[in-house]
């Protein structure tokens, strides 16, 4: 109905205004049209009180994300027909590649955690909201660090075994053995550096 449409539109307009204030938008009207055009394709109310509207156009100077907690929720034509009380708005430029897809993917993954979303909705201030996100990121990093350390220990163990094998060879001079062991150490260090650069390690 008209009341639903007006409240729904006002929430999106307010979110767009926040994105403009954040400095990611050079053409507000163009971006606003892009956001509403996306909504016309299908609702971005994904359920569980969450909506992730997004707009992609030349009026975006750089990819951005803003979040809103909506007290008491708002009718949003969500997939589960429930009101939306947590909204994330994404801005992307056509020339920014898959930036908005990357943001969507990461956000969707985090929002699958019910405790995380509940904590966001319960936040009483922007600072508390950001702390919830930071804590979740830190917890994720800590969990990723464990398999990284285990992988590096395995590399060290394999390198030591390889050096022992070299020491047992009788057809190599001491200088040749030293060169080969140095090469093993260099390869081991490179492998560990590559592990540190990865965001996750396959379990």
Question: Which helices and strands occur, and which strands form pairs?
Answer:
Elements: H1 2-22, H2 28-41, E1 45-47, E2 50-51, E3 54-56, E4 64-74, E5 84-92, H3 99-111, H4 114-122, H5 126-168, H6 174-197
Parallel strand pairs: 2-5, 3-5
Antiparallel strand pairs: 1-2, 4-5
Helix pairs in contact: 1-2, 4-5, 5-6
Notable features of this structure?
203 residues; alpha/beta; five-stranded mixed beta sheet; 61% helix; 14% strand; disordered N terminus
Q: Biggest sheet: strands, sense, closure?
A: 5 strands, mixed
What structural class do the secondary elements suggest?
alpha/beta
Helical run tally: 6
Form type: elongated
Secondary-structure element series: HHEEEEEHHHH
Short description:
The protein is of the alpha/beta class and 203 residues long. It contains six helices and five strands.
Folded structure, characterized:
The protein is α/β, with parallel strands linked by helices and 203 residues long. Helix content is 61%, strand content 14%. The chain has six helices and five strands; from the N terminus they run H-H-E-E-E-E-E-H-H-H-H. It has helices at residues 2-22, 28-41, 99-111, 114-122, 126-168, 174-197; strands spanning 45-47, 50-51, 54-56, 64-74, 84-92. The protein is elongated and about 85 Å long. Residues 1-5 have low confidence and may be disordered.
């Amino acid at each position: 109905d008209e009341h639903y449409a007006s409240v729904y539109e006002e929430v999106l307009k307010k979110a767009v205004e926040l994105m403009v204030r954040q400095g990611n938008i050079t053409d507000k009207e163009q971006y606003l049209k892009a956001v509403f055009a996306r909504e016309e394709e299908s609702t971005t109310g994904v359920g569980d009180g969450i909506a992730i509207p997004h707009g992609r156009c030349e009026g975006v100077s750089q990819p951005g994300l803003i979040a809103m907690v909506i007290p008491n929720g708002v009718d949003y034509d969500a997939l589960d027909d429930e009101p939306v009380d947590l909204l994330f708005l994404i801005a992307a430029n056509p020339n920014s590649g898959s930036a908005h897809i990357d943001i969507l993917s990461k956000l969707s993954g985090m929002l699958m955690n019910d405790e995380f979303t509940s904590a966001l909705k319960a936040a009483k201030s922007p600072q508390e909201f950001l702390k919830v996100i930071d804590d979740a990121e830190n917890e994720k990093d800590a969990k990723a660090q464990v398999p990284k350390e285990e992988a590096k220990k395995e590399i060290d163990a394999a390198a030591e075994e390889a050096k022992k094998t070299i020491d047992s060879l009788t057809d190599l001079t001491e200088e040749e053995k030293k060169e080969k062991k140095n090469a093993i150490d260099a390869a081991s260090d490179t492998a560990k550096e590559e592990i540190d650069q990865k965001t996750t390690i396959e379990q």
